[in-house]
Amino acid sequence: SLSAAFQEYLRHLGLQDFPCGLGSRNKSCLNGRRSPRRVQPGQEEALLDEETPEALLELLRDQHSPWALPQDCSPQDRLLREVAVLAPELVHGSRVYQVLKSLRMVDKGVEEVDVGVLQFQQLEELILSANRISRITSANLPRTLKVLELCYNTVGDLEDLCSQPPPELQHLGLGYNRLCGPSQDKFLTGDFWPNLISLDLSFNSLTDLLGLVSQLSSLQKLRILVLQGNPLALIPTYRGFLVDSLPKLSILDDIYVGSDERQQFCGLARQPELSRSEARVVVSVGEMKGVPDPSALQQLEVGSEAPVITCSYFVTYEF
What's one GO-annotated cellular component (predicted)? Predict the structure, then answer.
């Protein structure tokens, strides 16, 4: 579950170990945010040995320190480690759930988004790419969520996600999953996602361009759409039909939609028959290895009487 993966992640960060945590001889234990410790006779000298929060932070940030995080660590890792120095009580126990507004759990083997995720009462961004999630229940998602990224999972059904979707969600990332049309198109409407600005459906198995567009047109705030990698993107009129059908789009498949392009495709949305007639596939071969170069075999000396051997090859594509 996501909760179990998060707890394992916290253990890996070592938030209770030196130089983090309450037991790290941290002078911030004596600041006004906590009750001062009672000093027993003979302990005055020991207190002088306690490190300042600034000195402990330097141990985390200096790349030559044995406690430094790797240079490629995430901002989330760095934030939690530094909070564990400056305010250790905030990452102790269940309080850590109140610290994060963004949670990134990538490639952690997560299969289930469980009810424990609701403890993140301020969470606005949830990144769960490259896990093993096939279904996700929206009742287990914080209502404060604005970004949900599920790229590179195995999601094939959106029904559970749309039962109680976060009302303020602005970005939904479902690229590289197993969505098939047209059964899932009905869940991509303004009734479920009234505030959606950005939608990534790339590299799924969506095939019904007309049906999908009829549903997406109800997303009044949609400005960014990614559909490349789906079979429907092979239709020759694919981009033009989308540009004309969704006049509020600013970016389609990571390419800006300009006024010239809108003018070029004006009226295409009223000709749906053009989007049904055929599909087009363009295949290009950049390099082939392991076969002799035919041109090299045919280079003979001038006046040579040797027989000419001609070599040729053909490539078969199976779809």
Answer: cytoplasm
Count the domains in the chain. 2
pLDDT band at 310 (very low <50, low <70, confident <90, very high): confident
CA distances 200 to 103, 119, 229, Å, are 19, 27, 11
Element (H, E) at 44: helix 44-48
What b-and-e string marks burial along 35-64, b requiring 16 or more CB atoms within 10 Å of the CB?
eeeeeeeeeeeeeeeebebeebbbbbeeee
Q: Are residues 173 and 250 in the same domain?
A: yes
Number of helices followed by number of strands (H, E) in the chain: 8, 8
How far from 147 is each of 98, 116, 210, 250, CA to CA, in Å? 18, 18, 27, 19
85-132: pLDDT as tens digits: 665 665 666 777 887 888 999 999 999 999 999 999 899 999 999 999
154 vs 185: CA distance, rounded Å? 17
Do both 147 and 250 map to the same domain? yes
Q: Same domain for 84 and 63? A: yes
- Please check whether residue 233 lies inside any domain of the structure: yes
Round to whole Å and give the CA distance between 150 and 217: 23
Q: What is the CATH number of the domain that holds 194?
A: 3.80.10.10
d(CA 248, CA 189): 15
- The boundaries of the domain holding residue 238 are 2-12+101-274
Residue 19 preceded by cis peptide, ω within 30: yes
CA dihedral over 145, 147, 153, 158, signed as positive or negative: positive
Asked if 208 and 70 sit in the same domain, the reply is no
Spatial distance between the Cα atoms of 233 and 280, rounded to a whole number of angstroms: 9
